[in-house]
Amino acid sequence: MQQRVQIFGNGAVFTGVREQPWVKAVAVRGADVLGTGHLSDLREAWPGADDVDLAGGTLLPGLIDAHNHFLSTGESLASLDLRYPAVNSPEALLRVVRGAAASAAPGETLAGFGFDNAKYALPTLAELGAASDGHPLQFFHTSGHNVLVNSVVLERSGVDDQTPDPVGGRFVRDADRSLTGLCLDAACGAVVPTDVDIGSHGPNFHTKASLDGLVGAVDRASRAFRSAGLTCVADAQVTSRELRGYREARRRGLLGVRTVCMPLSHQLEEFAALGLVGPFGDDYLSIGHLKIYADGSLTGGTAAFSRGSGVQGQEASYFHEPEPLVALIEKAWAQGWRIGVHAQGDEAIGHVLTGFERATSASPHSDGRPRIEHAGVPTAAGIARMARLGVIAVNQPSYLFDFGDEYAESLGGLADELQPWRDELEAGVRVVISSDSDVSSYRPLTTIAHAMRRRTMGRRVLGERHRLTLDEALFAHTADAAYAIGLEHRIGSLEPGKAADLTWLASDLRAVTAEDVANVEIVTTFIDGVALPSSDSPG
User: Fold this and answer.
1) Which among 60, 172, 339, 508 is least buried, having the fewest CB atoms inside 10 angstroms?
2) DSSP designation for 289
3) Is residue 255 pLDDT above 50, yes or no?
4) 478 neighbors 488 (Cβ within 8 angstroms)
5) 423 CB contacts (<8 Å, ≥6 apart)?
6) What φ, ψ does residue 345 adopt, rounded to 5°?
7) How many Cα atoms occupy the beta-carbon half-sphere of 519 within 13 Å?
8) What contacts 180, CB < 8 A, 6 or more positions away?
């Protein structure tokens, strides 16, 4: 039996179509959008349709997070929460350690996420050892690039004061050249028990976990995402571990959002042997862009800036030195991959653009969609190169709130040119906004609010002229995000034949100030026309 038509009206409908971004109503049958327009016209086109009263709220295309760490977010939701301002001092961090150690089973690892040592000094290794009471301790930095461990973990890993720094990473040492327990970038893989060896291809947060544990994390994050209004995410660092979890979660009916996997570049040879490149899969679970890392983390202090930039407090880490980085981009592109490259500092961005220039010249793609993940501080010349190459800037507005005060101290005047959306848009660069969860909040309305405000936690505005309007932010989280992940044929806008992925908000966003956008209630989220109440959230 054919499903009945539903017409959503009596509210504001954002279509994600630039020619007509706002309409009065949308008609849906089952999993598909039928049409948009005036309520009376839709009722005339589909007489007898069921009316769905938006009650003055807003209906959006399902919101898309084009750069997210899906499974890691699910794991962090079950870990110790170390985020600022709840943890705002070394003593506050030690209190969390003591509390966790007191309730942990013998030998259980104390796992946490979100500490930010740019905001306070870390405890000493001796203090961590006393507080952890013999338990292994692994706390991931809020950037996801660094990990803090105690002596138990260092000894178990065979890392001591004489251990050399690995390629693409560093063991932080004190004035006496003794280990502090803080491990940066590729050094994470030397101390954290992991399921995969990724070498120097990125920070290794792929910790050992059972299949049930992976599926549980996927389920936990799925429910959180849908409750926040997300219907699709792209996991920006996928290994066999994550793909195994997503496939099994889907088999069990627990993969709750559309998922695009961006496989990490250490797997390039294995994919070549199979003859596999992205995009590959269906519109619910697929392989998309290959993920490559250039420099380290702006938040973790390891981004690569050019000499003379005046930047303080950033000591560059390159996962791949410039020439090997360029060669890796060329090689992957020649094999047919779409590529997304992590790059924060202007120097790293410049090397990535050189890689794209050489790759596109040697091996033209008809639809390559190159991406730069984060694209923190591109120069004016870099923005022009991005526009010529069709590079997509995949940005994270919440960084400006969460870490903006530290950025201002480190970057000086350059902090106003972080994520320079106005310059990029005027140059013709496609701008996409995303969360990078679990680094920042996965909540898309929070991301949109920070894109409109560009204000730090300390209430300083960074680059006021780069603020996005409401419509610009919505396009960057829907239609343009769909293009960035290669699913614009199915999602990202409300057009006939596309999926009925919808996010229903309780208020008319056009009547809400930037200060209040993040607080708008999610009424319901739909995927393929199936609704999930916003109350269905993780415990």
Assistant:
1) 508
2) P
3) yes
4) no
5) 380, 383, 417, 466
6) -75, 160
7) 5
8) 122, 124, 125, 172, 173, 174
Whether 536 has a pLDDT exceeding 90, the answer reads no
Q: What percent of the chain has pLDDT over 90?
A: 97
Q: Are 256 and 262 in contact (CB under 8 A)?
A: no
Q: Using CB atoms within 10 Å of the CB of residue 22, give its burial: 0 to 12 exposed, 13 to 18 middle, 19+ buried.
A: middle
Q: What's the rounded Cα separation, in Å, for the pair 516 and 521?
A: 10
- What six digits make up the tokens of 296? 């380290």
Length of the chain counted residue by residue = 539
- Whose structure tokens read 């993969």? 255
Torsion over CA of 172, 313, 322 and 342, rounded to 10 degrees? 90
Quickly tell me which residue has 């300083």 as its tokens: 460
**What's the sign of the alpha-carbon dihedral 154, 116, 218, 483?**
negative
Nearest to 139 by CA among 100, 169, 103: 100
Distance separating alpha carbons of residues 162 and 175, to the nearest angstrom: 14
Residue 24's H or E segment, with its range, is none
What does the pLDDT look like over 265-289, one tens digit per residue?
999 999 999 999 999 999 999 999 9
Tally Cβ neighbours within 10 Å of residue 422.
15
Confidence band of 537 (pLDDT split at 50, 70, 90):
very low
* DSSP conformation class of 43: H
What does DSSP assign to residue 42?
H
Cβ neighbors of 27 (< 8 A, separation 6 or more) are: 5, 6, 7, 8, 33, 34, 35, 36, 42, 45, 46, 49
Residue ranges with strand state E in 272-374: 280-281, 285-287, 290-293, 339-343, 371-374
Which residue do the tokens 């088999």 mark? 251
Chain segment 479-512, per-residue pLDDT in tens: 999 999 999 999 999 999 999 999 999 999 999 9
Contact 414, 312 (CB under 8 A): no
3-state secondary structure 260-322: EEEEEHHHHHHHHHHCCCCCEECCCEEECCEEEECECCCCCCCCCCCCCCCCCCCCCCECCCH
What CA–CA distance (Å, rounded) separates 378 from 382? 5
Q: What are residue 17's phi and psi, to 5 degrees? A: -110, 120
Under a CB-based contact definition with an 8 Å cutoff, are residues 421 and 394 in contact? no
Q: What are phi and psi of 409, to 5 degrees?
A: -70, -40
The residue with tokens 């930010």 is 116
Q: Report how far apart, in Å, the C-alpha atoms of 92 and of each of 111, 121, 123, 131 are.
A: 16, 11, 10, 12
Pick from 329, 447, 335: nearest CA to 389: 329
- Say what the pLDDT of residue 1 is: 62
Task: Give the Cα separation of 527 and 30 in Å (integer).
Answer: 10
Confidence of residue 2 (pLDDT cuts 50, 70, 90): confident
- Reading the block at residue 503, the tokens are 């996010």
Under 8 Å between Cβ of 112 and 82: yes
411 three-state secondary structure: helix
Alpha-carbon span 273 to 271, nearest angstrom: 5
Match 């680094």 to its residue by tokens. 439
Q: Cα(25)–Cα(220) distance, rounded to whole angstroms?
A: 33
